[in-house]
């Protein structure tokens, strides 16, 4: 049972990821997902594939959207003990097995049975969000470890999926069923682990906080779900391109984590990595026909979209690990967004089935996502350049009045507390005050490892002596290094309002009124 235990919020955020047998089961779950285009593509030679596959997927996505909405709405309400989580998850696992194995049987039926395929899709789709929620609970880790884990899963799943695509159908079916069972047995076991109670909040505040943290990664994940479903119906070699693209994307993410793991990975990824991936696709796609291998641009496109999916999945795991929001709320929202995007892609691919040339649509939609990203980055850069001068007077008045207006944009919780200096409260998301070591990596590059260890040890002593919670102890280390709440929120994948709440609690428990007193207290510790 140790492999299924939820990680404690006080675990060291920068400890290396320890791979466990449960992670191999996660690979099996991903490889056998019917919504994963190469999974269905491996059965393309089955007699009833053309008549059954699209009908099954349409029903699956539709049921997944509906079930995700139910899971999300239930998570926003006060918990009610109707059925135990373990029992519900066990029922979901059985339903998912029946639905997925049922469609395998329909692929080899003597005659097409579209009505039965719809039933199998509804059964599997309704169960999918519940299984995803338990998987998120079982393997939730901090953001840097989550990126490594997601890259490992994608790399391994790409290799296993490539092997499955090479197997003859008589061997593929039993092997696929074994992997399917291996990927479904974990959620019912993980559901037996208790879920910590979280403070109740208004549904609107919970959703605002969730969207503020996850909107950009989940938008990228939705784009991935939409585009892979569209490309699955195109003339491209989707199976081979997706496997190669997944491997390349995983290697890219490994490099990011190992070379730039000391910076806030999400801001760095969206400011540098994602634009570079998009630029590679645009350049490769701009070559005239016949002058450059077309498959290269397809692989580049898959790399781009899988990188987006990796970021989205990593954010989901980090949000669940942080326990800022209920796991079923975060997973229900993410699963619903992805399923809705895939359903839209399924519909569009059917509407455009009269032509096999999907390349213009892929380029247009890729450009649309990059445009949204550029607008977001431009807004962030504008805040960094202009907001310090325009909002200084307003921030001081808010602090003087003790108002919480500075947190309204971050989730509706209380605002600046006593002890937060002007640089800490009311700062817009993305604003890092000048003169501080808040540029990505600066604090870590300027400090020797021994100094960092000493600082962390002092913070741990102070936290233990003053009764700080594990999350507050984690935030204390960032405060001691001179980082602002905006930077801490980016590093820990928390909303700024939540970080400011932790800062207020830290100041109250340490009986300090400003950052200088906090630093002095730690130095004396």
TrEMBL record:
**Annotated transmembrane regions:** 21-43, 55-76, 88-109, 115-133, 145-165, 171-190, 210-227, 239-261, 268-287, 299-320, 332-352, 358-377
Q: Which InterPro entries does the protein's record reference? A: Sig_transdc_resp-reg_C-effctor, Tscrpt_reg_LuxR_C, WH-like_DNA-bd_sf
Sorted keywords for this record are: DNA-binding, Membrane, Transcription, Transcription regulation, Transmembrane, Transmembrane helix
User: For this protein, what is any one GO molecular function term?
Assistant: DNA binding
Give GO terms for biological process: regulation of DNA-templated transcription
Mark out the compositionally biased spans (Gly residues): 404-414
Q: Where is the HTH luxR-type domain?
A: 461-525
- Specify the domain of life of the species encoding this protein: Bacteria
Region of interest (Disordered), residue spans? 404-442
Q: What is this protein called?
A: HTH luxR-type domain-containing protein
Organism name: Adlercreutzia equolifaciens subsp. celatus DSM 18785
């Amino acid at each position: 049972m140790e492999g299924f235990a939820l990680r404690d919020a006080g675990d060291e955020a920068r400890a290396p990821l320890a791979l466990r047998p449960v992670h191999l089961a996660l690979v099996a779950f991903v490889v056998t997902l019917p919504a994963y285009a190469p999974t269905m593509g491996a059965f393309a030679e089955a007699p009833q594939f053309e008549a059954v596959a699209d009908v099954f997927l349409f029903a699956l996505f539709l049921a997944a959207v509906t079930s995700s909405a139910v899971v999300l709405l239930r998570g926003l309400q006060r918990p009610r003990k109707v059925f135990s989580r373990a029992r519900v998850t066990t029922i979901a696992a059985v339903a998912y097995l029946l639905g997925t194995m049922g469609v395998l049987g329909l692929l080899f039926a003597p005659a097409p049975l579209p009505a039965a395929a719809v039933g199998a899709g509804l059964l599997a789709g309704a169960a999918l969000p519940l299984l995803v929620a338990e998987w998120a609970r079982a393997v939730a880790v901090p953001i840097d470890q989550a990126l490594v884990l997601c890259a490992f899963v994608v790399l391994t799943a790409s290799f296993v999926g490539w092997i499955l695509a090479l197997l003859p159908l008589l061997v593929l079916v039993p092997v696929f069923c074994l992997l399917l069972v291996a990927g479904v047995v974990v959620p019912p076991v993980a559901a037996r682990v208790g879920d910590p109670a979280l403070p109740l909040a208004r549904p609107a505040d919970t959703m605002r906080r969730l969207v503020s943290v996850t909107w950009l990664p989940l938008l990228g994940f939705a784009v991935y779900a939409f585009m892979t479903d569209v490309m699955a119906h195109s003339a491209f070699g989707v199976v081979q391109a997706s496997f190669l693209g997944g491997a390349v994307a995983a290697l890219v993410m490994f490099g990011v984590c190992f070379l730039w793991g000391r910076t806030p990975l999400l801001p760095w990824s969206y400011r540098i990595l994602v634009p570079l991936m998009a630029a590679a696709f645009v350049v490769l796609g701009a070559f005239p026909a016949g002058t450059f291998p077309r498959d290269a641009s397809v692989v580049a496109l898959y790399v781009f979209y899988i990188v987006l999916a990796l970021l989205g999945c990593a954010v989901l795991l980090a949000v669940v690990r942080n326990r800022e929001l209920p796991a079923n709320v975060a997973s229900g929202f993410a699963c619903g967004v992805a399923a809705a995007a895939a359903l839209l892609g399924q519909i569009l691919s059917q509407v455009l089935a009269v032509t096999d040339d999907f390349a213009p649509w892929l380029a247009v939609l890729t450009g649309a996502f990059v445009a949204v990203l550029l607008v977001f980055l431009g807004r962030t850069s504008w805040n960094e350049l202009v907001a310090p001068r325009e909002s200084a007077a307003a921030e001081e008045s808010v602090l003087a009045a003790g108002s919480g207006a500075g947190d309204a944009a971050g989730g509706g919780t209380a605002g600046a507390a006593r002890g937060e200096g002007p640089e800490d409260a009311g700062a817009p998301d993305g604003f890092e005050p000048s003169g501080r070591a808040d540029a990505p990596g600066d604090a870590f590059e300027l400090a020797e490892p021994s100094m960092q260890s000493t600082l962390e040890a002092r913070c741990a002593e102070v936290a233990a002596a003053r009764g700080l919670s594990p999350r507050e102890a984690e935030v204390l280390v960032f405060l001691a290094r001179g980082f602002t709440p905006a930077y801490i929120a980016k590093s820990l994948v928390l909303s700024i309002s939540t970080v400011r709440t932790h800062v207020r609690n830290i100041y109250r428990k340490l009986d300090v009124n400003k950052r200088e007193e906090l630093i002095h207290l730690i130095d004396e510790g």
